[in-house]
Amino acid sequence: MQDAPHALLVIDVQNDFCPGGALAVAEGDVIVPGINALMADFAVVVLTQDWHPATHSSFASRHPGAAPFSETRMPYGPQTLWPDHCIQNSTGADFHPGLTAGRADMILRKGVNPAIDSYSAFFENDRQTATGLDGYLRSRGITAVTLVGLATDYCVAYSALDAARLGFAVTVRGDLCRAIDLNGSLSAALVQMQEAGVTLA
Fold first, then answer.
1. pTM of the model
2. 76, CA 20 to 30 Å: which among 97, 119, 134, 158?
């Protein structure tokens, strides 16, 4: 058992990010048993859930002529355009059926605002609008977080970088994550995390 100030953040282990889903990450389902086993070691477990309205501005379908995985410019900066995924109340947005979601002390839904994407569990992509997770963890006395889930190079990395910036001790369990690896995004994310002091385990 990890000491009480340590929380496990399980990032976006949802059907649409697993094989057969709308934005499938290769082997995204393989990590589920290991994550379930790891939950027993932590006093606090938080699950995040991408929870997009059907009209979300990060969907390529909302930009006529734009292809999925192309990039556009939003008021808050560059934005990758994704296939429609994790639409609220859809099967794709559900947690993977093998995930022990009932163990969660908190479920954090993100990406709800149609005008802005939200990779990080802590902030939306404007880097300013907080999700409330920081305050929740501090109210529980948490000083360290371990991250697992999908995808290493997007929502896991953004969450890890924000956690480090907020002063948490941060570990990413690479064996319990899988990556999209879009145009070298995985190697770039790993370098960023290392430079930010994140422990890659």
1. 0.96
2. 134
Are the beta carbons of 18 and 25 closer than 8 angstroms? yes
List pLDDT tens digits, range 2-40: 665 999 999 999 999 999 999 999 999 999 999 999 999
Find all residues with CB under 8 Å of 101, minimum gap 6, and list them. 47, 95, 107
Provide mean pLDDT across the span 181-192. 95
Is-contact 5 144, C-beta < 8 A? yes
Helix axes 157-165, 185-195, angle to 10 degrees: 20
Which DSSP letter does residue 18 get?
Answer: S
d(CA 23, CA 21): 6
Beta strands in the chain (DSSP E): 6-11, 44-50, 71-74, 77-80, 106-110, 144-150, 169-178, 199-200
List of residues 6+ apart from 86 with CB closer than 8 A: 12, 14, 16, 17, 22, 23, 49, 50, 51, 52, 92, 93, 111
Collapsing DSSP to helix, strand or coil, 133 comes out as: helix
153 CB contacts (<8 Å, ≥6 apart)?
A: 179, 180, 181, 182, 185, 186, 188, 189
Question: Which of the residues are catalytic?
Answer: 12, 110, 155
- Which of 81, 38, 48, 23 has the alpha carbon at shortest distance from 175? 38
